[in-house]
Design brief:
This protein is an alpha+beta fold. Strands 1, 2, 3, 4, 12 and 13 form a six-stranded antiparallel β-sheet that branches.
Length: 805
Amino acid sequence: MLLNYIKIFIYHLKQNKLFSFLNISGLAIGIAGLIFALLYWNDEQSYNDWNPEKEKVYQVLVQLTDMPVFSDCSLFLKPVLDKDSNVETVLYADSWYQKDKIIYNGKKELVDKIINVQHNFFSFFPFKIINGDAISAIKDDSSIAISDVIAKRVFGNENPIGKQIKCLDQMFVVRAVYHIPGNSSIAPNVIMNKMEKLVTSGMTAPFAFKLLLKIKDPSKIEHTRKSLENKYNGDFIKRIAKLEGFTPNEMAKKIGHFTVVMEPLSKARLHSITDGYPEGRGNYQFLLIMMSLSVLILILSIVNYINLVTANAIKRAKEVGVRKIVGASRGNIITQFIFETIIISSLSILLALVIVELTLPYYNDFLGKNLIMIGGQFYLQLILIFIIIILAAGIFPAVYVSNFETLKVLKGNFGRSKSGVWLRNGMLVFQFAIASFFIIGSYIVYQQIKYLNNKDLGFKGDQVISVCLNFPNSDYEAENVGQNIYNKYTTIKQELTKINGIEQISTGLISFDGSDNSIAPVLFNDELFKERSIAFDFGMFEVLNIKLVKGRDFDRKLASDTINSVIINETALKLMKIKNPLGAEIRINNKKLKIIGVVKDFNLLSPEVKVPPIVFCHLKTMNIAGNIDKVFIKLNSDNVENTIANIEKLWATFDTEHPFKYDFVDKEYARTYEAYVKQKNLFSLLNVVVIGIALFGLFALASYSIQRRMKEIAIRKTLGAETNTLLKELSKQYILYCIIGFLLALFPVYYLLNKWLENFAFRIDMTVLPFVFGFIILLVLTLIIVLSRAYQATKTDVLKYLKYE
């Protein structure tokens, strides 16, 4: 029996090569898309799964009214936590990685994930200890733990334990080598403990270091949260009220309310409300979009398969009738067609795996990951996909075919029966609806990204590069750190001005990568405003081509501009409602400052957020020149590459330890919405896939439908019907299905794309144009497919179909 099924399958495969290819390739494309989405889904969902403490470890997040959520907390919370019986242990840590080199026996290795934590880090993240032990690994500030990857690079086959290495200009003893068993929110290459001194330093800032808690009973976490929130809104408010000369109630009204959020490690990757961990957050929206679209494409592929099989059933009707006459039961027919579906599905999955294997490197580049097709979970999901396809694509066509009436089939009347026509037409409408969704959605997403790329940002960074400054730690140990670093920067600046092709040079504590959203309290007329505070050197506005709308820029000839002068942006002016800003006095950190100018608003963080109110001052005004970490260089548009090469040569004389690293400011800003660019690229790719699958189905269905009407066409031609009339008659039903499918897609695409556009503070308006564009594209493609098949049918020799009538 099985051999007979295989012979029949091979026979029909040879007889219908094109439609068999469309069936297999259509399913393969849908399966491949879902495999890609599953690989990404599995990787993102696996973060911290290996960690047995993930449900007990919480990060403490703090938000002040009208401010972003901070992942750094104050040190004054520790006494409260020490008294909390539900808190097992407390960990303060840096919320970012540092970069430096490891030096051992003259050998240097650049390391990009160094983290500073307290001694109990391994109780929160119990990495597998290969050498040494977790207890003494980072017991003091002279001990260090390194990953197995770094150990191999630095020590080769030597045992690293007890060896001395130099890192961050300090000697350390290697106490442990660890292996990270899976994706982790904190996945450092080097772990050190220089945090103890900082934790006991008595810092009173409300946002200082990352704070992690290990909780005994997660169900009682609300009590801990409230106690920390009360500490912020009680003692802290009272202390700063006393410093500023206000009552606690007055200060609370000015500052706002502190809200504390306790977030478990298990939700850190995909459901966190802020980028609290060094490895960052996953893009849950992008993950859902990718998964949903991939499932939708697979459904489209299955629908397409069912459509093709049921349409093809007309050709196999007599075969089924004969088999029933010679004794085949309904169950035998169902078994045969399900068996054929199993073979086609198996071939489709194999083809899908080949497609994924060949394109996986490009997919990894697209996501910035290193995904591989292994793991028990993946294989179980693949088997589940196989079963679902068999159930969804195999059972209905098999039952449909097995219900053919034997006598009607053998009399030749089945070809004129309308059985199954409504189902196929309904599925075709569904295909049109999905295709409409993708065409319109792809156009809207493209227009939004195009808008962001072309939007006037308020600054020009296409000819400005930011170059990282790496001063040795010894420079920060000088008596006057700020002046010492500023002098070094000035020396570098003087040397850079000698290079041809450099127009201007400046520096500032500013970043265009969206990472810096710090806020400072600004006091004006006894009212407190939360604003950005950015320190610049002279000429920074000119370098970035930021326009002044009132007043003047900082002037190096005026000593007061490094003492008590500030410039504000338009948003700050509106927020503070200053009628005559020039000469108005504000206070920052109890220092009186005078407004000398107002600059035009410019984008700083990302297109997802509005331009914040900003106060600009000189680096020396707040004595924070010691924080300089980059220099901004404006290049002449002529021979940019040669100018950068000359800068690199000069840089080698300044810094022999670190590679020359630069970035164009406009590209740095563009990366703040890189995730949305990826969504655009994904939508465009899937758009092509969906249209292709839909057109495959339309082509096959139109071919079968027209083939079934060939006798009708021959009679019409004999009676004198013109080609144009025949074309109109054969295509009008598909135009109707196209219109119905398009109308069905209107609400979902409008609602979902509007929700997507809500991510942006700067967005395009939803107009009728994308919908008109989508409909025209869909209609044109439909007509091309249908009319080409219909025209071919009208040119067929009528005698071929009428000679036996």
